UniProtKB/TrEMBL annotation:
Cofactors required: FAD
UniProt entry keywords in alphabetical sequence: Disulfide bond, FAD, Flavoprotein, Mitochondrion, Oxidoreductase
Lineage: Eukaryota, Fungi, Dikarya, Basidiomycota, Agaricomycotina
Name this protein carries in UniProt: Sulfhydryl oxidase
Top EC class, one word: oxidoreductase
UniProt region (Disordered), positions on chain: 1-27
Catalytic activity: 2 R'C(R)SH + O2 = R'C(R)S-S(R)CR' + H2O2
Length: 190
């Protein structure tokens, strides 16, 4: 599977760049393919003048949105288009929540609609290299839309495939309902 090319590199074999905008299939810079911190690579001088390499704007945005900039990394200011991470979090939230409320026994129509939604992602998801990885992954693991539990597990496993590729910890798929439907037993989400 092809890795994204970047505006700061001519090699299409580069992985997610340490700095530089990923280019989309049209050869143009692709914001939803790129982490905000790489939209405009800072010069060394600028890096030294910002705490931990974060721009003042990104730190203000993180504070304004209640996020911990140190823990979450740079985030686009609230009025900016989504970067690859915001888009990913929002999409996973939508997909996992939709799976959590999918019927235990879906009708044929509901199954067809869910299949349509999932099968559209590889061609429509705006992060093109994410979409192309997903297409390959879904070929090997076709969606299981037979019911709520099976769909939630299938989605958890696809998300874990991405986590693994990005070097992140795997999520315990036994905790999918706790995370996306019921909340923890300690009542913090009640
Ligand atoms: C289809 C798709 C493909 C993507 N491909 C790429 C890619 O190729 N390259 C890239 O850089 N980014 C990709 N992303 C974005 C990436 O997956 C993350 O969304 C982004 O890096 C932000 O990560 P995060 O650590 O904030 O949490 P996310 O991975 O966005 O997860 C959000 C929350 O979901 C929960 N969670 C985590 N794993 C699971 C799981 N397996 N099951 C259920 N819940 C879980 C956790 O509570 C987590 O905080 C993709 C996103 C999507 C939707």
């Amino acid at each position: 599977m092809a890795e994204p090319s970047t505006s700061s590199s001519s090699s299409s074999k580069n992985a997610i760049p340490p700095g530089g905008m990923v280019l989309g299939p049209d050869g143009k810079p692709c914001k939803p393919c790129t982490a905000f911190r790489n939209w405009k690579p800072l010069s060394d001088a600028k890096k030294k003048s910002t705490r931990g390499g974060k721009s003042a704007a990104a730190m203000m945005a993180a504070l304004a949105s209640g996020q911990n900039a140190a823990a979450d990394g740079d985030v686009p200011p609230p009025n900016c288009p989504a970067d690859v991470e915001q888009l990913g979090r929002a999409t996973w939230t939508f997909l996992h929540t939709t799976a959590a409320y999918y019927p235990e026994r879906p009708t044929l129509n509901q199954r067809a609609n869910m299949l349509g939604l999932l099968n559209a992602l590889p061609s429509l998801y705006p992060c093109s290299h994410c979409a192309s990885h997903l297409a390959g992954n879904m070929k090997d693991h076709p969606p299981d839309v037979s019911g709520r539990v099976a769909l939630s597990r299938w989605l958890c496993e696809r998300h874990n495939d991405v986590n693994e590729r990005l070097g992140k910890d795997k999520f315990d798929c036994a905790k999918t309902d706790e995370r996306w439907k019921d909340g923890p037993n300690d009542g913090t989400c009640d």
